[in-house]
Write a structure and sequence with these properties.
By secondary structure, the chain is α+β, with helices and mostly antiparallel strands. Helices cover 40% and strands 25% of the residues. Strand 14 and strand 15 form a beta hairpin.
């Protein structure tokens, strides 16, 4: 004992020395993080000075990104505008809002826009670089078809690069007007575009024959019901082009209503999904892959008018929990169908289905009712949510009736565990639902099949298993389950309880049979005469106890049920021999309790059969 105390005291002494040594160590001896004031760490405490430093950091990263763009290192260009840039921009914007500084807030907005466009520019530059490399490799292999495809993809990417470059340069110009030093980033972006355009143009000139698209005339305005009409002239090195040579597109979408007459192509186009307002629309000739022609592009200034459509909804069904909500919707303008219209369906503002209208303007929408929707009359909203388009956003609201869906609980006990399953009345499993086990103070969650499992070892009596259904269209339900007593009594489960209890009853019955056959008297059941005058009659109190226990083993049973109703419930909830045993006990109790008949040899023979079945299992 003394040695143990000495060891403990010694350890404490060593620890104390260690603490003193740690306290005396210099900062260089400690590799952990030091918490120091911001000014000591190089970060100013003055908010204005901090904002200035953040802006300088953002300016430097924008400049570094533009230098990487100019050198063709597009990955580095995007990395310079990554997470660190976003974090500093958020802090700069927060300081501007805190100081209510409108100038700095405007600078933050311009930086954000320029950053986004420059990221897109870097991605397009990377794709253009890859397409150009694929073109060269295909030429080296002598695969002219693959080379043309890669070069045409490079041409399209180059046009996108030019458009994005203009947006980035506009952002830099706005920053320069605000006094932000961008270090010549705008000039570097412009140089990148010129170099790319020159390289792609040189390859196009070597690989393809030139074409020319000229707009002869075009409407100044158009809308969903007012098609855009225009005429363009298409020529190649040998004169007029034909539909076999390629297609005419507007903003990249092929025009299916183009009529060719020599070199003149007449176009009628319904701008359903173009943005409303004044725009320059891109009209282009896209050559067929097998043709040796280059693409040609022209622009047309046009005003897109917006029109609001009508949405007609068919019959709305009555639904319950997780049922499918299926409706049809038709989109029209002035009675004419609108094709390719994106339509969405919502129930109580929760989206359930999305689709696009066919050529007749109709779409079938079908989706599951969200599980949290309560029963009653709810809103079914069918909407076109695209905003600022030639076909305007609109919606229609219908009434959807949601019914309460009944639920069902089954439960049983075996080997100290209570298991069960929660389903709808028609058998659909209910996963992730809380089931309350009354009497053992437990709550369990059902699995994907609606099943649950909980230990009830050492418990006795009976418990209530309940699903409360606090939200949604599901109804509550509960059932009672008998548990084995703690002293090792017969198991109170639907599988064994009625059979085990029947064995007790059968002891008295077998004794009576034995006496009738001339054997020894054996044990006399309680309530029978010693001379065996009533030997074939079962004791009433024992039979009542047996019936009560059998009834409690049936899911969904209730004390108010008559013996015949209990037998019917057993046949509905149990199966095979278990149902037959409970029904036999219920009939015996009914004959004894209501003096319909005496429990005679017929009951004894039934009990003997049940006993043989129990022995053979």
């Amino acid at each position: 004992m003394r040695v143990g105390v000495a060891v403990v005291v010694g350890c404490l002494f060593v620890l104390a020395l260690g603490s003193v040594g740690a306290g005396a160590a210099t900062p260089s001896d400690w590799n952990g993080t030091h918490h120091v004031p911001p000014e000591a760490a190089g970060e100013p405490t003055d908010q204005s000075e901090l904002s200035t430093r953040l802006l300088a950091s953002l300016e430097g990263r924008l400049a570094n990104s533009s230098e990487s763009l100019a050198s063709g290192d597009f990955a580095a260009a995007r990395e310079a505008l990554g997470d660190d840039f976003d974090r500093d921009l958020d802090r700069y914007r927060e300081l501007a809002e805190r100081a209510d500084d409108e100038d700095r807030a405007e600078i933050a907005a311009s930086i954000d826009l320029t950053r986004s466009e420059q990221r897109r520019l870097a991605a397009t530059g990377r794709d253009l670089q890859n397409a150009t490399q694929e073109y060269r490799q295909a030429r080296e292999r002598g695969n002219e078809t693959a080379a043309r495809e890669a070069l045409r993809r490079a041409e399209r990417l180059n046009r996108s690069l030019a458009t994005q470059s203009e947006r980035v340069q506009s952002g830099y110009e706005a920053l320069n007007r605000s006094g932000v030093d961008t270090g010549g980033a705008s000039d570097r972006v412009a140089a990148l575009t010129r170099d790319a355009t020159g390289r792609v143009g040189d390859e196009l000139d070597r690989s393809f024959e030139p074409t020319e698209l000229t707009v002869l005339d075009a409407d100044s305005a158009a809308g969903p019901t007012d098609p855009l009409s225009m005429r363009v002239r298409l020529t190649g090195p040998d004169g007029a082009l034909s539909p076999d040579d390629g297609t005419v597109t507007i903003d990249g979408r092929p025009v299916t209503s183009a009529a060719w007459n020599g070199s003149v192509v007449s176009i009628e186009h319904r701008p359903l999904w173009l943005t409303a307002g004044d725009h320059d629309r891109e009209v282009a000739f896209q050559p067929a892959p097998e043709r040796p022609y280059a693409a040609s592009v022209a622009t047309v200034g046009i005003t897109i008018r917006s029109r609001e459509p009508a949405i007609l909804v068919g019959d709305v069904p009555t639904v319950g929990y997780r049922d499918r909500v299926s409706v049809t919707a038709t989109v029209q303008i002035d009675g004419e169908p609108v094709a390719d219209a994106p339509v969405r369906a919502f129930v109580a503002d929760e989206p359930i289905a999305t689709g696009e209208t066919a050529a007749n303007g109709t779409v079938a929408l079908s989706g599951r009712l969200p599980p949290a929707i309560e029963p009653g009359d709810r809103q079914l909203r069918v909407a076109m949510t695209a905003t600022d388009r030639a076909v305007a956003a609109t919606e229609v609201v219908e009434e959807l009736s949601v019914e309460r869906t009944p639920t069902r609980l089954t439960a049983s006990v075996e080997d100290g565990r209570l298991t069960g399953r929660l389903t709808t009345a028609d058998g659909r499993p209910l996963p992730d639902r809380e089931v309350v086990i009354g009497g053992v103070d437990r709550t369990v969650t059902t699995d994907a099949q609606g099943a649950f499992d909980v230990s009830v070892a050492g418990r006795s009596g009976s418990v209530t298993v309940a699903y409360r259904a606090a939200t949604g269209a599901l109804g509550p339900t509960e059932t009672r389950v008998s548990l084995p007593d703690a002293g090792g009594a017969l198991p109170a489960t639907p599988r064994w309880l009625p059979i085990g209890l029947l064995a007790i009853l059968a002891v008295g019955a077998l004794g009576a049979v034995w006496r009738r056959s001339g054997g020894s008297p054996g044990p006399t059941p309680s309530g029978t005469s010693a001379d065996g005058a009533d030997a074939g009659v079962v004791d009433a109190a024992s039979l009542a106890w047996l019936y009560r226990a059998a009834r409690e083993s049936v899911p969904g049973s209730h004390p108010a049920l008559t013996p015949r109703e209990t037998a019917s419930q057993a046949r509905a909830e149990l199966s095979g021999r278990r149902a037959a045993v409970v029904a036999a006990i219920a009939r015996a109790y009914e004959r004894q309790a209501y003096a319909l008949d005496r429990v005679d040899d017929r009951a004894i023979e039934a009990h003997r059969a049940a006993l043989r079945w129990l022995r053979d299992r």
